Amino acid sequence: MKAFIKIALRGVIRHKKRSAIAMLAVTFGLGAVIFLRSFIHGAQSQMVANITAVLTGDAQIVPAAQQNLYETNFIIREPAPVWEMLKEDVAVKGVMGKVVRGGIVASPAASLMSFIVGVDPAEEALTGTKRTIIAGRNLASGEGHEALVGEKMREILGVEVGEKIVVTAEDENGELAGESL
């Protein structure tokens, strides 16, 4: 073993420039891997935080027949008992009902498929959901026929704050329903 170390050290000492270039290459490569892994971890963490805040929440109660998030045609027929049980639990910070449907959002200029999430703004305020509003304002209770859309969706639809969009989705009976917002 001593012989191998002696030969390796002799090679490093004789070829200082080559050894320095090799060490720099290894250091740069390792640094790049650490940076990229950290960047990806941060992006994944942010994605999870965004989806949790807007769509899923920290926990969900869904009908037994619903197998995954993308099946949006199920409803809880009697939510009141579940609601009361959750509100009485001291470990539960906040409770909010959501209606999630796949549907079409349209403007006079364009239309696109999207998840449509219906919430009660008063319940949403209790859960501490935070949004960055670029233009306009957050939803308020009692002021129906309003919607929040993301900046990218707003650009695709070609609408500005206060302009009308039409949301079309299936209702609980599987029939097509639409609403202008």
Q: What's the rounded overall pLDDT mean?
A: 80
Rounded to an integer in angstroms, the radius of gyration calculated over CA atoms is 27 Å
Major beta sheet, specifics?
Answer: 4 strands, antiparallel
Strand content: 15-25%
Q: Helical percent range? A: 40-55%
Q: Count all strands and give the number.
A: 4
Number of helices: 5
**String of helices and strands:** HHHEEHHEE
Shape: elongated
Uncertain residue ranges: none
Given the helix and strand composition, which structural class is it?
alpha+beta
First-to-last CA distance:
78 Å
Order of strands in the sheet with most strands: 2-1-3-4
Description:
The structure is a single chain. The chain is of the alpha+beta class. It is built from five helices and four strands. It is elongated and about 80 Å long.
Quick recap of the structure?
The protein is an alpha+beta fold and 181 residues long. It is built from five helices and four strands, in the order H-H-H-E-E-H-H-E-E.
Layout of helices and strands, plus pairs?
Layout: H1 2-14, H2 16-56, H3 80-88, E1 98-106, E2 111-119, H4 121-127, H5 151-157, E3 166-170, E4 176-180
Antiparallel strand pairs: 1-2, 1-3, 3-4
List keywords for this structure.
181 residues; alpha+beta; four-stranded antiparallel sheet; elongated
